Amino acid sequence: MKEFLPRSQTARKPVLIASDLPAWGRVALAVGIPVLEKMGFQACSLPTALLSTHGAYPGAVLQCQTDFLEKAIVHLESLELEFSAFLTGFVADEAQFDLLAPLQKLVRSQGGLSVTDPVMGDNGKLYSFFDGSFVSRMRSFLACSDLVTPNLTEAALLLGTDPASIPATEGELREWCAALAKLGPRLVAVTSAPVHGKPEFTAVACYDAESGRFGLFPHKRVPVSYPGTGDLFASSLSGELLIGVPFPAAVRRTVSRVRRAVISSYRRGYDPRSGLCVL
Q1: Minimal CA–CA distance to 144: which of 188, 107, 104, 177?
Q2: Three-class SS of residue 191?
């Protein structure tokens, strides 16, 4: 069994994050870097795209960084660097999967953790700049992942079902998680999961394929939605696992951290489009 054992503060290897970088808005790399740095890791970034803002702002400018990625990865590999984890978030186009997959395998061969946050959609819809071919490539990318952290929409897309579908029972939700694990990752954490009979609640469903253990961590909904919540969840959960916290406890701690950030942002009256107060 592959374990992610606690490391001393001085012995921790850096974490590499591949995702988009906005000029404005706390999402993607703007969230993952400070969160992991505060948890004691050097957070290294590979921008998959540069954005003026994230998509909540009309007219956002996005510049794909595939050419840069190709050259940067060649250079990084030549330096023979080692990373404790590789966290993949927003992938800007299908060609980037061919560049990121060897890096994913390299980090795993070093004993590192491979985490995939499959950014593809939300609220029952696939993002307009992606299509079925992209979803298929993301599904294949999970074969070398240790942990996947989709929201409910992304989980449905990965499983080839209607992105607006919702598991009818907790048992069906468990089946969804088990089916996701069969795509490759041992650990699954599905955010924005339903809590049946309690519409005022939402939950994170987690599943460990090795033990067969399933858990549900409910929390009361807050009447506002913040971009970057999934980025905060994925980076925080990665950090918890890397410092040796067992998976169910790591999920519980991460849910608590994300909820505190959401409530703090809400009480301070932050513009939801600008993202969360993460620290």
Answers
A1: 104
A2: strand
Token pair 């809400």 is found at 266
Comparing CA positions, the residue from 128, 126, 130 lying closest to residue 156 is: 126
Residues 6+ apart with CB under 8 A from 167: 173, 175, 176, 193, 194
Nearest alpha-carbon partner for 55 in 117, 121, 152: 121
The DSSP H or E segment spanning 21 is strand 15-24
Side-by-side strand order, sheet with 62-64? 62-64, 43-53, 15-24, 85-88, 113-116, 147-148, 187-194, 201-208, 213-220
| Verdict on whether the full-model pTM lies above 0.90 | yes
Q: Where are the beta strands (DSSP E) in 137-246?
A: 147-148, 187-194, 201-208, 213-220
Report the phi/psi class of residue 28: left, alpha or beta, with left for phi > 0 and alpha for psi in -120 to 50. left
Instruction: Read off the pLDDT of residues 135-184 as tens digits, 9 standing for 90 and up.
Output: 999 999 999 999 999 999 999 999 999 999 999 999 999 999 999 999 99
Q: Please say whether the beta carbons of 17 and 33 come within 8 A.
A: yes
Question: Which tokens go with 272?
Answer: 């939801």
